Amino acid sequence: AAYNRILLLCGTFLLLSAYNSTGQSFYNGNANTGFGGLIGTSSLSITETGNTISCTLITTTTSFDDVLVMYIDSETGGFSNTAGFTDEADPLRAAISGQAFGSNNESAVNFDPDFSADYAIAFTPNGPIESGALYKLNTAGRHQLTAEIGLSPKNNTTSNAYTFYFDKTAVGLTTAGNFKFVITYLSYN
Description:
2 helices
């Protein structure tokens, strides 16, 4: 399988990659430091076993204080940016929407022309929600909770590895996994 890897900068850190169950399953960050350094200096490993897609974020920094959002393109259609998202019901949904939880501050993410987000995984081991979930994206209100992601560890901002998983059918896949993703890291405040 062919893989396009495009590094983009938009505020913090964005990475557009493609996962295919028969192809690459290890992705390095873009080497950025500073606020997005947690993701820029980390790596992501993706494996598929049966219907389960498992991810391990291997970190090299000492503090995971904010929210990681993994936008997923796995279906036809989707969203070319986050400008129309308004859901800020909790810090995870607010991060997906590019909204600052509890305020009017917002920032839109514009995706690469070859990417249209259908789903998003958001998680943090810190703050008011020490967990994560998978959502179907929606501009007409709340993002639809699709699945919990089994984040581990929770309530630990200094781990060197965070694991999460989801059923491939939760992102509309019925055969071997094949999806594109973009990762952002931002403050929910």
